[in-house]
Amino acid sequence: MRGMFPIALTPFDGEGRLLWPELERECDWLVRSGAHGVVWPVNDSEFSVLSSGERLEGMRRVAGAVDGRVPCVLGVADVCTAGACDLAEAAARVGASAVIAMPPWNVKLAGVEQFVWYYGAIAEAAGVPVVVQNLGGQRGSNLSAATLQKLCESIPLVQYVKEERHLQAERISELTAFTGEFLKGVFSGGWVLNLTAAHRRGCCGVMQGSAIPEVMARIWDLMEAGDEKAARAIEQKVNVFEAALFAVQTIQGVKEVLVRRGIFSSSALRGGEPRRLDADLMHDLDAALELLRSWLKEPAG
Length: 301
Fold this sequence. Notes:
- There is one protein chain.
- The chain is an alpha/beta fold.
- The chain has one domain (about 5-225): Aldolase class I (TIM Barrel).
- It is about 45% helix and about 15% strand.
- The protein is built from eleven helices and eight strands.
- The chain has helices at about 20-30, 50-65, 80-95, 110-125, 145-155, 170-175, 195-200, 215-225, 230-250, 250-260, 280-290, and strands at about 5, 40, 70-75, 100, 130-135, 160-165, 185-190, 205-210.
- α1 packs parallel to α2 (about 50-65).
């Protein structure tokens, strides 16, 4: 797996109902826009406010919308090993190319052997490559490079890491130093490293929410072709766009752009009061999007 793997966001209406046709439309659009893979549901997908039934139904719909055209990576993180394994089995049934999971976050695992047990159980249940989502903060476990290497060496299907710890650039370089026989690739995550920096540090790809997938895929493709100058010329304008997203609030900002692009009908979040956006914030978002107009493809269908 290699390239720009956008994370599909989850569309809700103002009452918190999940809009299934819009989720399917989003995933189809991501593929047609040039994305190299699709990921759902993880943190940017608001997975923690989805019911078990919604996650299972969403997996089926996302895999169906992607339809094997690019890798489909399904999130199976849960508060316990048994729950993650149930989700991993479901992901395999609908045809996932890989699964991604962070360790349980309510009761933290302790010691390398517990992490080996957890990811080994997921790998056995899924039967497809596993991506270890490695992040810090309250929900993360801050797995060291040595622990990640042990996971990859001990469990053949643990083949990728999505690195999101503090000092992400340095952490990625630690991991890319031993990619190869055991670790097939490192994905950059979050909104810390831009695509050109991630590519230069040896990442196999980037996983992040994106309302401009065709632009992000274009930057990655230019880096793959060795044209860093052209990639950075586009990325300078993307940086202005992403600053406008941060000013709104990242997930809500991406959803606002998806509404403008005709993919979503609502930018509503589930759980927590959405930010009320004043005219100046909306103006800045529109102006930043206009900077990228020449690279945007109009959504069809």
